[in-house]
Amino acid sequence: MRKTVRFFAVGVMAAALLTGCGGNSTITEAATTGETGVTTEAAGETSVAEESTEFTIKDYSSYVSLGEYKGLSISPILITEEDITERIQEYFRDTIQQGDTVNIDYTGYMDGEAFENGADEGAFLTIGSGQFIDGFESGLIGVKIGETVDLNLTFPDPYDPNPDMSGKEVVFTVKVNGIDGVVAPEYTLENVAANTDFQTLEEYEQMISDQIYTEYDQERMNQLWFQIVNNATISGYPQEEVDACANDLRSYYEQMAMQYGVDLATLLAANNYTEESFEEECQLYGKSMMDETMVLYSIAAAENMTITDEEYQNEMKDMVDNSGMSEEFITSYYGGEQYIRESMLFTKVMEYVVSLAVEE
Fold first, then answer.
1. SS3 content of the chain, % helix, strand, coil (to 5)
2. CB neighbours of 170 closer than 8 A, spacing ≥ 6?
3. Residue 121 CA to chain centroid, in angstroms?
4. Rounded distance, CA 309 to CA 317, Å?
5. Quick one: which of 112, 127, 166, 290 is 20 to 30 A from 187 by CA?
6. pLDDT at 48 over 80
7. H-helix or E-strand containing 233?
8. Which of 225, 239, 220 is nearest to 67 (CA)?
């Protein structure tokens, strides 16, 4: 699914949510005329964007009234030695922890016999995802890379995917091949030099500090954006666009059902949805998408912001240079030129409101 429920990431390609629900959005179809100014008061600069004939800002003023978005409070970023140590311990260890994505081989035995569709090799599993029956994932916590364990478990009763197994005892023999993200068992200079591009512990720890800073900064940007959206007053929705966003969520579940080899009704039941409650969830999703979309475009309109052809071409050149992929591939992968422009608009709006925010 191309979109998520919130603008979780601030950045041109990381903010993979913006408007454009259902493909070609009507938000960007009209043409603009004249020059569009972009003011950045906090930086003390005012730039005038070149005329664009392919991108405009839709008017959502009949649906949204902006609240405060200038001069909002944000928390300063403080990184401690404990933060750095904890992060290093995530990368240098040999045992499974909650939340890890592990690579495993496993075979299930019932009454001493391996049963059909109960084995796999090189399978990836995130501990805590609930992908396997109760006890499977939690039973791997603390197991070391390379170890093999037997998990004595019981299938749920009822067990809808295979009623014949309902309530039956089973033993899963599981070998742990690896843990995603783990660099080496111990944090030593030798292991750092052998497994990373860093030759000193100081350089490696600085990289870790920079990584944590980026994550903390991302989180406070998310919090700032949520605050801006919550400050706005939403009085209605363009139903056609809500439906387009709702259809994205519905399509996502349909694709997931195909991947699991079941029909949509079976997948919904496994996730505790009825068809009615799922439709309500899709509508809620569509409205939450439009909350953010309408606030984004309302701020852009209030501050006279757009994305010019020159800005777009410069961004595309950077993406091509940094990724090594063609412009055609990038454009297709991210849903088209208009969608990329909308992502860029979100970045521009966030840079503006962040520049006016106050650390407290």
1. 45, 20, 40
2. 108, 109, 110, 115, 118, 152, 153, 154, 155
3. 28
4. 12
5. 127
6. no
7. strand 233-234
8. 225
